[in-house]
Amino acid sequence: MHILGIESSCDETAAAVVTGGKEIRSSVVASQVDVHKRFGGVVPELASRKHLEAIVPVVEEALAQSGIPEEQLSAVAVTQGPGLVGALLVGFSFAKAYAYARGLPLIGIDHLQGHIASLYLSGNGPAFPFTALLVSGGHTAIYHVVSHLESRLMGKTRDDAAGEAFDKVSKLLGLGYPGGSIIGKLALDGDPSRIDFPRAYLDKSAFDFSFSGIKSAVRRYVQEHPEDYRADLAHIAAGFQEAVVDVLTFKLIRAAATKKCRHAAVVGGVAANERLRERVRSAAAKEDIGVHIPPLRLCGDNAAMIAAAGYHQFMAGKRTGLEADVYSRSPA
Ligand code: KG4
Ligand code: ZN
Fold it and tell me: Which CATH code is given to the segment(s) 127-293?
C-alpha cells in the first residue's frame, strides 16, 4: 500500500511516498532556511509564499523518484496541524485538491503523531507501549505511546520548546539560524562543566519542562561578561547544551520507569543533537531500557513520517472530509 505524504507546517515543503508505513520510496524536502536566515527565525508570511512556489515541484519530484505510478497510490496523508496556519493551508489545500481529482482518500495527520511515526521508518520501531520524548522547534513533550493511533501526553513545556531555546540562545550569541545544529557543533569544542547554567527540573516527579530560565541565564552571562564572552562561546554553548540535555534525559528515563516501559524514544528536530542521543543511550542502558532514535534525516521535518502515520490511520479507517480545516495548536 503506497501513501503520498505532504508536509508544510513550518519552513520545510516536503513530499514523500511510503509503502506499508515503513519503506521510503522517495522523500523530498525543500528547506527554506536560506530565506529565513537573515531574519533570525521563520517569517510566517514568507513561509507561506515559499510553500506555494515549492509545493507542485516537490510533489512531482517525490512521485517521480518513487517510481510508483500515481494510479497505484492508496491515499494522500497531509499535515493538518499544529503549525503556522498560512503554511499548513498550502499543503492541506493542495492535498485536498489532489485527492479529490484522483478519487483518493484524504487523511489529515497531526504533525506530532508524524514525528512519532518516524520511528517505524527505520527498522521495526519500538514495541508498544513506550515513552517518547518529542523535541522540536515548536514542541517539547513526553508521551506514553500505547499504539500507532494513541499517544497520551505525560507532560510538556510551560514556555519555550527545547529547539526554540537552542535557536534563541544562538541568536543572542550572534551565531545565526537555525541555532540547534550551530550550537551542537560549537559545543564539541567546549567544556560543558566550565559554566554551570541552571537546570529547571520543576517537580522532579512530573514531566513538564521550562526552558525560558536557562535562556535568560545565558543572556545574563553575556551581559555580565561583555568583553570576554566571545572567547568563551564554545564553553557557553557546551554548558547550555548540557543543562538542556540533562533535564530532557532525566525526564525521559523517569517517564519510562514510571510507566514501566522497556522502550524509550526521542523524535523531532532536536533528536539530531549528538549529545542528547549519546546521553539518552547511556542513561537508558543503565536502566536496561531500549532506545529508539530515528536517523538524522528523519529527525527534522519531512513527509515520509506523515505518510507513515497516514498508513496506520488509513488501516484504522480514518478519513478526512474535504470540509476539514487546519489547526494551529493541538487540541488541549
Ligand atoms: O522538528 P523540526 O524540524 O521542526 C519543528 O517541528 O519545529 O525541529 C526544528 C528544531 C529547531 O529548533 C532546530 O534548532 C532544532 O530542531 N535542531 C537541533 C539540532 N538540529 C536541529 N537542536 C539541537 N541540536 C541539533 N543538532
Ligand atoms: Zn516537526
Answer: 3.30.420.40
